[in-house]
Amino acid sequence: MTMEGAKPMTRAKTFELESWRKQELTTYGGSMRRYGTTPGKPEEYRSKGQQAVTPKDAATLIIVKQGDQPRLLLGKRAMTHKFMPGKFVFPGGRLDYVDQRLRVPVEIQVPVMERLRRHTQARTSDAKLRGLALAAVRETFEETGLVLGTPSKTKVLTRHAGWRAFFNHGVMPPLGSMDFIARAITPPYRTRRFDTRFFMVFDDVIHSDPTVMSAGSGELLDLHWLTLQEARETDLPAITRMVIDIVEKRLALPKPSQMEAAAPFVRFIKSKSIVSDL
Fold this sequence. Notes:
By secondary structure, the protein is α+β, with helices and mostly antiparallel strands.
C-alpha cells in the first residue's frame, strides 16, 4: 500500500535502495561503527550509475551552556526538510557568498585557522574559512533568534537582511571564541551532500536571553538546552552522536588546551569511512 499521491517504487528501485542501505551498514567502519547509520527516505539515495553530487560547504555551531552538567542547544528539523527530516541537530546551514565577503574587525584564533586549512585546496582563501565560522553564527541567529557576539560600536555595512538584523544588536561575531572541533562530508551515495565544519562556543558569548528563542525562522523546532546524556537519547544523525562525544572529550581538557586540540575529519574514500585528525 502506498500513501495517497506517492508513486510506488519499482522492484528495481526497491532493490537499488536496499543495496545502498546495505552499503551504508558496511561503509561505517572502525571508530564510526558504534554510532550506527542515519537511514533516509528512498529519494535521499542516488540511483545506481548516477554521478555523485558535489558536497556544499556548510557550518554548524555547538553552543555549550556551562554548569555542573553542561548543556547543548539542539532542535528538531521539520519533517518537510529534504535532508535529515525529524532529526535533532545543532543549528547551522550552508555557507553563503556574503559570509565570505563580510568584513569584520575580528579574527579566528591562529590554531583554529590552521586546523580549518588542513585538507583544503590550495586556492581556498582565508576569507572562505573565516566565512564558514561566520555562517555558523548567522545560521544560528536565523534559526534560533540567539545573538552570539561581543559588544561593539563598529558599524559593518552589508545588504544581507540577516546580517543587518544581527548587527543591529550592537555586537561583533565571536570569532576569537570559536573552536573548530570536527569536519564531516556526507557519504557519496546520498543525493544531498554537505562538507560541514563543526564549531563550538561557550554560552558566555550569548548577547541575548538564552531562554528566548521564539524569533527563529522555524527551520528548527523544539529547541532545547539538553545535557549530553539527554541529547544522546533523542533521534540523532550518526555524525551528531560522534560530535557529542567530541564535545565531551574537549570539555575534559583545560580551556587553554581546547583550542589546540585536534579536530576529527570524517570522509569517504572508496566507499569506506575514514576518520583522521586535523
